[in-house]
Fold each of these.
Amino acid sequence: MAHGPALVIALPFLGAFVCGWMGSRRIGFARWGAVGTAAIHAFIALSLLSRVTRNGPLTYATGGWPAPLGIEVRVDILGAVVLTLLGCGATLILLFAQSHEPAELGRQAERWYWPLCLTLLGGMSGLVIAKDLFNLFVMAEICSIAACGIISVDSRPAALEASFKYLLLSAVGSGAVLLATAMLYSVTGYLDMDAISRALPAAAASFPRVTMGALALYLVGFGLKAALFPLHVWLPDAHSAAPSASSALLSGLVVKVYVVALARIGYQVWGPDLLWRSPAPYVMFWFSAGAMFFGSIVAIAQRDIKRLLAYSTIAQMGYIFFGLSLRSENAVAGALLHVFNHAVMKVCLFLAAGAMIARTGKRDLAGLSGIARSMPLTTAAFTIGALAMIGVPGTNGFISKWYVALGALDLGRPLYAVLVVASSLLSGAYYLPFVISAYFGPDPGHPRGREGPPAELAPIVILAAVCVLTGFLPRFPLQHMLEVAKSFFALR
Amino acid sequence: MHDLILSTIAGYLLPLITVYGAYVITHGHLSPGGGFAGGTIIAAGLILAALSWGFHHAEKVFNENSLGNLDTLGSSGYVLIGLVAVFRGSLFLTNLGAGFPSGTPGKLFSSGAVWLLGAAVGVKVAATVFGLVARIWSGGGASGEVDEP
């Protein structure tokens, strides 16, 4: 798989073109083509992961031109783990969507849906392994537009409004990223991340304001796309109005890749020394602390299950940014681990919620009470996802929150660790009442014994199992993320 | 509405604009411009003709079906040309190293894969730009339904 880095980007795009073309002739081809492409992507990502963990980072010079002349992509451990997450996550989501979206979208919209999902997958993969800042911007643009597409694909008014809001705000974010890239290019003369990283100390000494401005713009641009509080305003509408499979893609995977991009820029381009001489981590710290509380408190007031999950995403993104803004290996490893863990549990929750909504036709929490009696497996998976969100020991959420709190203690700031714990308790305040009412609440007459078809149920159960497995055996993602955090802090 | 002056002039201009667009696409490796610029020029010519003769004439040749075919041909052609290099054992999108003929530098058929990539981009851009305008003109929504005025 020496060509893996190029194939993980090229194949989803090729699949998208072909599925879009075949969609008007044989919709079945587009459906299964999308799942098949995502599965091949997952296979390539897994083989890249095994290769990268054995042989170290894999750099791929597109067209045979090495950087800084050409455009390179690099798959390091972080990239390989996130690629695996994207490939496997997208495969499961698209498998779920097979039995779900045709009914939810209708024939016309469905033709556009599968190519858009694959385009999004290709864009995300490119964003995660891009080594060139302009490539990073282009891939972020592809992701934004494809994401708007999968929100508004069925042309419902609420979805159109949400996706227009997202389109405008993410255009602002893209503009900020492009401007920051131009500023860095003007003071360093490179677009390649490694070359910039070498030239940046000198550039920062001669042009402190330009480099500081570029960092601020990256923080705002990628922060906006990753829904960092107070730049999150588009997220609740977009993630709750989208079709269920889209919500899972967006909330589980799309917001994560921007975090990875921001982490790369902060730690691999700027480097820890230069980063902590700027105010950016402190700004990120306060924003993320706000996110952990704001997201949870607003989520408590929600009556719609998908809006609840969307606000919970804001709170959980707060943990990730919180960990990244602490100058401690454990905290950064915890944050990157939470990127992985939150993706698994949020996809599980959104798919389970989507299945419940499809069976009952109800979206409000009260209407779904007693659902456990008619959909026991789906509700069990939802419960596991919810417990993982809260960070109950034995689930993956516990491990990542533990490492973030550990990082806070490394810094000698026990108060920060208390913040993490307090916000976790808050997330219990909105997940647990729903779980309790799902099991013990009155049953308003849900259809009996109506679990979804196996293709719909399997992804939900697999993801819930992964939540528990990586909670008890956290070695696979944790060890890699600790290594990544160590390499981040080894840079000067 | 039919306008004699407009439709006559458009009839003279359409071949010129299309040939110029094709020139810009095929000379992308020699002169300024390339696939994107040339594709937009061709699409602009088609839009001019469609506006002055009516979009229903354009529908006969460039309907959703044929535009979709061209679109897919251009975009997947680009990826496939990139993959040719992979199958020949070089890195993705490698040009001369993967055995594409270099030709005589400065001549039209030179530069190996760049010429083909430019053509693929040109086809894709022309089809997409014209398709977008035709779709807006026909009032089609995201899912292709036409609202009657």
Amino acid sequence: MNPMRICLAALIAAGIAPAAQAQQTTLTVYTAFEAEDLQRYKEAFEAENPDISIEWVRDSTGIITAKLLAEKDNPVADAIWGLAASSLLLMKSEGMLEPYAPKGVEALDARFVDTSQPPAWIGLDAWIAALCVNTIELEKTGAPVPASWEDLTRPEYEGMVAMPNPASSGTGFLDVSAWLQMFGEEKGWDYMDRLHKNIAFYTHSGSKPCKDAARGEVPIGVSFAFRGAKSISEGAPLAVVMPSEGSGWDMEAAAIVAGTDFPEEAQRLMDWTVSENAMKQYNVGYAVVATPGIAQPVENYPEGALDAMIENDFEWAANNREQILKEWSARYDSKSEAQ
Amino acid sequence: MAVLAQHDLQITRRRVQPKPARDEVWQRGLIVVIIAYLFFGLVMPLAMVFTKSLQTYAFYPEQVTIAFQMPDGSHAEPRSLQDWLDDSGAEANDGLRASERTRIQIVRIIPKNARADVESFRVTDLSADGGQLLIDGVPSEAGQSYDVPRAQLGKVQVRPQVSYGLGNYGYYFSQPSLFNSILNSFIIAMIVVVIVVPLAFGYAYGIMRTRMRGKAFFRLAATVPVLVPSLLPAIGLIYLFGNQGILTPLLMGQSIYGPIGIVMASVFFTFPHAMIIMIVALSTSDQRLYEASEVLGASKWRTFWVVTIPGARYGLISAAFVVFTLVLTDFGVPKVVGGDFNMLALDIYKQVIGQQNFQVGAVVSMVLLVPAVVAFAVDRIVSRRQVAIMSAKAVPFQPEHNPRLDSAMLILCSVVAVFILGILAMCQFAALARFWPYNLTPGLSHYDFSKVDGGGWGAYFNSLKLAVLVSTIGAAIVFLGANMVEKARGFQIGRTILQFLSMMPMAIPGMVLGLAYIFFFNDPANPLHFLYGTMAILVINTSIHLWTVSHLTASTALKQMDKEFEAVAMSLKQPFWRMLSRVSAPVCLPAISEIWLYYFVNAMTTVSAVVFLYSPQTQLASIAVLNMDDAGDIAPAAAMGMMIFYTNALVRILYSLATGRLMGRLQAWRHR
């Protein structure tokens, strides 16, 4: 009778409908995994744990980190699966992680496991910075394929390089932190000053420079090796170059968010994330996984990527993250695309 | 006996009481409910934006002391952190501005060598309100001391405290990059106005004042942009003019990423709004004025300037302001093709999503409100005057046959139509190409949205659900509200408040409303917090964001109905809802269905308000376009954008068919 009453009923129905589903536990999992991997990981996990379903919240590393920190007092996430170790170190220092030693953690390479007992987070796989070079577009300009980070600052590459913004992208941050560690603080910033002259734009996402290079939108994208290998397999005219000075890298890691309503399910998720089956899933896209002896070669993955990995001080990177980002934004934000 | 008499008296009293009184209570109740809806969905959230913009955070290192434990177990004289800072000559937080989330570690303030042999520390929060410190994540209490072993000192952090003032505004206007955005936004908006308004005038002139061919087609073609999110033309431009675009040489070395791209895409999405206003403005003209001008010996050119332009002046002003506001408040276009060119609406997004700096985001929102409110006010004043120029004696204008003018206008309209349809065609082509620009064989691989960000096909169906809910609920509430404002008896104050609140949303940019909703609904202390992250909040937000235009449509239709209807209904002792459902609603059905369509189409395309509000369960197609583009997956973004276009186009066609038939029946009374 009363139209208003009908409207209210519809409003309430709209809000309640999604909740009235099967008797399953839904874990809200925050991630910065590549979008195309999400479905595969979810299916593999749920096949073995049919009573748990995963609800992904995905964004780039910086955004997910900021989101987790923002929700600190009222966390939405139950677990984190696939976020840079340097970010998880930050959460750990904020007391946001629930330490847990997953079943089978002892099989992992010790470098991948948090040093606390029980560990607050577990590393799963590693990704390594690399250059995605569009050979067709570069040939048109007549410039040679760059072989080192230093090469990128040469005048012939002016306006030809895209790089992820370290404030929002984990890949961007590991580049910057690697340069500061490799070249030293002063020379590192000097290097970035010179590189900045050649940058066409800083992107929000770490894989975008490589995708842009694949489409020929820019000739050179600073990205990571796995993304380049993927694009080549999709038919992009790319060469993946490991810069001769060495490459920054980071781990994708997993952890339980303190205060989750589903501690048991979150632990089962953690158990699964270090299982052999999970490692095989990571290996589809990543050449380096946490359990030794599992990794199979990835199609079109650049040779020498493992040797290029620098000695990365994650503690240093996590502790200095905020300072580095502030300095970076003050110097270079002018060429950033919208975050 | 006495009891019985009293009882009788009561019955009589009830009989005597006129029926409408109870009816009025119902009406008042309804008005209050709708006011409450707008109050909690609009006024309160906006007030929160204002409050947030006044919040500043600062460190008070003098409020925290630390005492070293001596080897004998006693404590040395406590020193404040400010003393330690003074020793080293450093400033708290390196002199940088603190935000809500900034923390300083105590170990960074006290040099390592000064505390080398100390085993334990006693830190004290001297402040009156406490919370200066976070000890392993737990806030400290006022006046409380905490003993911290050496190994744990790294976990003690100093937290900034909130205060209220104009500090954020000072900061905002002192930042060259943020201040530049204001300038950029105004310049771009001006350029777009200068291009779009004359172009739309010419286009509408061709349709209304000439006898060129294909008028119906041109009219339809020009309204196509309202069916797609503003992100889509920007994506189309990348394919046309990007570094690998098919028309890139036309730019002669200029980059599409930046002002050029923003202007072109803005022209695309603002054109239909300007054109519709110009069509209305040019439709109200008096043939007699043209005849007089001719008789007085004025040339065609002079007639154009002294008759046509003055007749359309209010439309021109209105169009200029509408376009200006649209460009200023849109963030989709600069997001996609802006490159490093910053605009105001984009700054809100960057501050909030990128840097979690809600306070500065709130300041930018307040800045953005100013031009939007001014433009809205001008538009309202102008549209009130527009009504007055048609007199009852006016003779409708009949265009003469003029081959030169007709073909000139045909060319102009064709160029615009090709521009509009060309961009869409480009998007569709790119969405089908396997690997742009190296492999152009068509395929459907980009329609597999599960491999990219944005929520896959689920996002598309969420959008459909949102559109149906918003259009149905929105049309019902808005019509009810407009009916109360126009037709209710008495309760003048309630009706005036409702009328005022109904006009407000037009002046509020979508981004500001979205941000306001985060502030208001994501506060755990708010009893309405449960709405956060649900479809319901998206429905509420979108229904209110688009309220004003819908309200005006409903009001206009209701105003055309004679007040006599109400008088008759009242004298027949009919409750208001029967009058509403049997008379007003059927008579106003054309307006109601127009509102329904308006809500549907805009709910499918809206980005700005909902970008802050969607959750993993409620991802939307328009947001998916944004997120896919963001991740570099621009072909799937184009594919999803085109899905929105086809959906809206289909709904619009179905709408025309359905209303054509339905109106025939329900509106039969209009014909004898």
